[in-house]
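Researcher: Quick test of sequence recovery. Tokens follow.
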């Protein structure tokens, strides 16, 4: 088992197979300002330039030891492709939505997926970055791409206020947007798999209980997740920010192989609920622990995550851009120390 490559260990973990030690990586954003300074691949250019995107993504593996290459660094690719207006961000802030197409319920009927979705500007950037990453990287290292999920796409397209209102007053309208999101996710994710991506992370925090009541998760979201996972041609991970405790059982029944959860979710409890149906991923706090605590405290929390049932050790959400490199190195080192201390 000690001869496993990083990719084998990552995939085996997603498939709930036995590994010598769990992977330590990030399935969420990895763009760190220190890495930008070292490589010259800085935001906001690294969101829009395939070469710089690839360089910055690979640096998180080669320079600080994360055991997967994960990209892109924002969640606006699909949103902009479908008609949202996006502000480009800065050195340490991600692109943000400025405007959205569905101001009224009537606007939803006029929305459609572009005929040549995969040829759109933002998606082409990601596909080109994928080719560059694959050409530069050993095949032993897993490549992980993040894309917006169906609920997040719906929320971007109609704005958060409409999203919250329509889930109660007009769920059939919201369901149209979510279904459109599922179709986009499927086509885009499968294009990434065709380019050699090893796993796609569906970022869908807008489906979680912080925004959507759990009964609506069951009626609006779960059927779309099952349709999505049924039609994906590769390994899939679902990431939901916030306290997803109340929907853990449904997440585990959705067909995703990995479930990435934030630190608000108790891993011991989550392990009991999931009960081997998916690989549990997480959940060291990026904003409190990785950004601001000492390396020793980071190691302590990371080791506890492994003890509590993490199948892949990862930050609970995207790494804060101003996180010190040494803190991420401590996070990575914690995994090896854990097994050494256990005598493994």
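Model:
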């Amino acid at each position: 088992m000690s001869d496993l490559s990083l990719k084998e260990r990552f995939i085996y973990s997603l498939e709930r197979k036995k590994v010598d030690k769990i992977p330590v990586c990030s399935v969420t954003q990895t763009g760190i300002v220190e890495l930008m300074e070292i490589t010259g691949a800085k935001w906001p250019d690294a969101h829009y330039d395939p070469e710089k995107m690839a360089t910055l993504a690979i640096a998180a593996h080669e320079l600080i030891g994360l055991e997967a290459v994960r990209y892109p660094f924002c969640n606006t690719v699909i949103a902009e492709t479908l008609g949202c207006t996006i502000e480009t961000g800065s050195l340490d802030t991600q692109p943000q939505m400025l405007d959205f197409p569905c101001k009224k319920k009537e606007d939803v009927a006029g929305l459609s997926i572009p005929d040549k979705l995969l040829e759109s500007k933002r998606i082409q950037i990601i596909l080109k970055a994928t080719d560059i990453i694959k050409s530069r990287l050993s095949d032993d290292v897993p490549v992980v791409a993040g894309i917006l999920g169906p609920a997040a796409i719906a929320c971007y397209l109609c704005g958060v206020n409409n999203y919250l209102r329509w889930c109660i007053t007009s769920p059939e309208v919201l369901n149209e947007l979510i279904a459109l999101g599922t179709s986009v996710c499927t086509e885009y994710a499968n294009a990434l798999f065709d380019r050699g991506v090893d796993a796609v992370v569906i970022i869908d925090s807008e489906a979680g209980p912080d925004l959507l009541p759990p009964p609506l998760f069951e009626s609006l979201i779960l059927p779309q997740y099952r349709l999505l996972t049924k039609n994906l041609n590769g390994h899939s991970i679902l990431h939901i920010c916030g306290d997803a405790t109340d929907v853990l059982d449904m997440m585990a029944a959705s067909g995703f192989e990995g479930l990435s959860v934030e630190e608000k979710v108790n891993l011991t409890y989550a392990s009991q609920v999931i009960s081997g149906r998916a690989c549990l991923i997480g959940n060291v706090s990026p904003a409190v622990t990785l950004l601001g605590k000492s390396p020793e405290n980071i190691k302590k929390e990371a080791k506890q995550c492994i003890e509590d049932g993490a199948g892949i050790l990862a930050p609970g959400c995207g790494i804060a851009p101003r996180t010190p490199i040494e803190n991420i190195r401590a996070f990575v080192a914690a995994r090896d120390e854990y097994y050494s201390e256990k005598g493994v």
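Residues 171-194 form the longest helix (24 residues).
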